[in-house]
Amino acid sequence: MDLDYSADERAFRDDVRTWLRENLPADLHDKVARYAHLKRDDLLAWHRILAARGWIAPSWPREWGGTDWNVVQRYLFEEECGYAGAPPLIPFGLAMCAPVLLKFGTEAQKQHFLPRIYRGDDFWCQGYSEPGAGSDLASLRTSAVRRGDCYVVNGQKTWTTLAHMADWIFCLVRTDPAAERKQDGISFLLIDMRTPGITVRPLVLMDGGHEVNEVFFDDVEVPVANRVHDEGKGWTVAKHLLGHERMNTARIGASQRELEALKNLASRLMKDGRPLLEDPRFRDRVSRVEVELMALAVTNLRFLDQLRGGRAPGAEVSMLKIKGTEIQQSLTELMMQAVGPLAQPRAVIGDGHDFDAYTASLAPRYCNYRKTSIYAGSNEIQRNIIAKMALGL
Ligand SMILES: Cc1cc2nc3c(=O)[nH]c(=O)nc-3n(C[C@H](O)[C@H](O)[C@H](O)COP(=O)(O)OP(=O)(O)OC[C@H]3O[C@@H](n4cnc5c(N)ncnc54)[C@H](O)[C@@H]3O)c2cc1C
């Protein structure tokens, strides 16, 4: 097993790093570093810079704009973007809807939607979860009843990230309430958010930010041409999509950047007459997270080595989601612990510290990051997956 990068891979990483240094706009970098809430224009600005460079959709087939990078290069690219502090690429169009269309879409759907997703013309959101159907997703109740060339959709989605910015939503809907297995009665629809009958209401998270929503459908007419795959095959589509999600949740590069920021902060903050980073107890906690992060990076390399050899890693990649999000949360806890009362949006700092905007964003960020162990399949569910599929329990 090879747990290091080859000379070619390191050269690729250096090229990407240099390009990011030269092309990541300072204002976007600054917003990410301050944990500012990014607006649609911020997200699309970075999307379009990468699209112009030809790097927005590395994993797509070459004919649709993919880069032909191998798995290691794709991984390195993502981690370098995280490490450089680039805005996140919103996955709903690029990494969720597009792979689904590539696998199951009609030629007309591909021709229409893929170039638009590539260029950033359409902003997508994901309509899976409903009240009462999160972990147990197959219990979803939003109905789609066929009427001529349309489905008439009624029901509610919840926790819909960025629905208030979105032009389109891909949805799991129930087309056959009588199906014996509840998974068999589900279909996958692409819905234009401007269709009459759709209402989006904000859900404000505990950090005070608006990133998720409730979406209501009242007699919303959706052309049958917007169904992906056959009627009743929505669960097959959903499972394909989840497979794409699992390798991308560790966010190792972003955590490495945040660990550096934490150390930097703790070496400037004084406690009992010496830098906080020299306090043995604090240092011990930082070291533990650092060791966990290194272990996660090595685990990730193990999975990459399997992929290099053409073997898809199994359910054990759920470990990446669990450990990756635990580390992200630990880092936000340590940041809060480091700055204490300065981690408040309203903290008044008049003593010449040059990191006030940064420290003031730490409490909202701490609150916001509680989400990471819930979304994309909660960590308890990931543990169930490992227990069942990897350990055979
Ligand atoms: C910030 C945020 C953004 C999100 N964005 C989206 C989005 O864009 N689109 C979308 O469709 N969804 C989105 N979600 C929804 C997310 O996928 C669900 O919240 C998640 O699947 C959990 O479902 P639930 O909230 O219904 O909790 P429940 O399923 O009710 O779970 C409640 C608790 O019970 C635990 N639990 C449930 N079942 C089991 C079990 N079998 N074994 C052990 N423990 C269990 C869970 O881990 C959790 O701790 C988002 C969620 C959050 C918090």
Explain this structure to me?
This protein is of the alpha+beta class and 393 residues long. Helix content is 47%, strand content 15%. The chain has helices at residues 7-23, 26-33, 40-53, 71-84, 91-104, 107-119, 234-246, 252-268, 280-308, 318-339, 356-360, 362-368, 379-390; strands at 124-127, 143-147, 150-157, 168-174, 186-192, 198-204, 210-223, 227-228, 270-271, 274-275. A four-stranded mixed sheet has the order 1-4-5-8. A four-stranded antiparallel sheet has the order 2-3-7-6, with no helix packed on it. A hairpin with a 5-residue loop joins strand 6 (198-204) and strand 7 (210-223). Helix 10 (318-339) runs antiparallel to helix 13. The model has no long low-confidence stretch (mean pLDDT 91). Residues 125-129, 134-135, 159-161, 212, 371, 374-375, 377-378, 380-381, 384 line the site of flavin-adenine dinucleotide (FAD).
